[in-house]
Amino acid sequence: GAAAQQADTPLSGIAEAFEEMAALLRSDEGGSVELRLDEFCDACSLVSVLFGCLGLAFKFAEMEYVAKVRDLVEASRTHRTLQNVLDLDVAKNSVRTPGSRTRNLRRVRQGLDLIRALFEQFLSSDDYSLKDAATTAYMQVCAPFHTWGIRTAVYAGMYTLPYRDQLLLKLNETDAAIVGHDKVLP
Ligand code: 1PZ
């Protein structure tokens, strides 16, 4: 059935993992629930499958993302929550220091924000190509925080993105499934 099919695709696995964390945070009325770093890392690791669909031009993005998630996985052996990571870097005054865990956490979060923006763009357009959706998402979310060199490389790489239907095929998805569980496209 539809539910079983959704649980089987990479995207539905990613959605489930993040929805679980979102539900936990929503349930948090007193502000006492804290996200566990190991669970956050597990969800972040699921995202890596997307890179396999993007092609060689985004290999560098993959290496960057994976390296930063790996650092957080390492941190999860000694830090229970995301807040613990932040507290330590605040105390050491290293929140912005390149390579610090808090900085890496922020970079990973920017990557996640980019993916969210990308699929929002994806849904609001009927383009055959991913280039415009990806460019708009990147300009909104990540470009302000990247150097000129990186931005230039990313914009050049956009021309090599697969077409939308190819991406869906690789992800074992249909357009209807991406819209969501409850909605059925005409
Ligand atoms: C179908 C999907 C199409 C999406 C296309 C958009 C891809 C944008 C790729 C952005 C590449 C940025 C690569 C390098 C960034 C580095 O300058 C920084 C350095 O951080 P520092 O060490 O100074 O703290 N690294 C990062 O920001 C790490 C995270 C980048 C990865 C984000 C990719 C998100 C996922 C893309 C979709 C799968």
Radius of gyration: 17 Å
Corresponding CATH architecture: Orthogonal Bundle
Largest sheet, strands/sense/barrel: none
Ligand roster: ligand 1PZ
Strand fraction equals: under 5%
CATH superfamily: Glycolipid transfer protein
Q: Could you spell the SSE succession in H and E letters?
A: HHHHHHHHHH
Task: Tell me the number of strands.
Answer: 0
Integer count of domains: 1
Q: Judging from the principal axes of the Cα atoms, what is the shape? A: globular
**What assembly state would you assign to the polypeptide chains in this entry?**
single chain
> What is the CATH C-level name?
Mainly Alpha
The overall pLDDT, averaged over residues, is 90
- At the third CATH level, what is the topology name? Glycolipid transfer protein, GLTP
Distance between the first and last residues' Cα = 18 Å
Low-confidence stretches: 1-6, 181-186
Structural class: mainly alpha
Count of DSSP H/I helices? 10
- Helix % is 55-70%
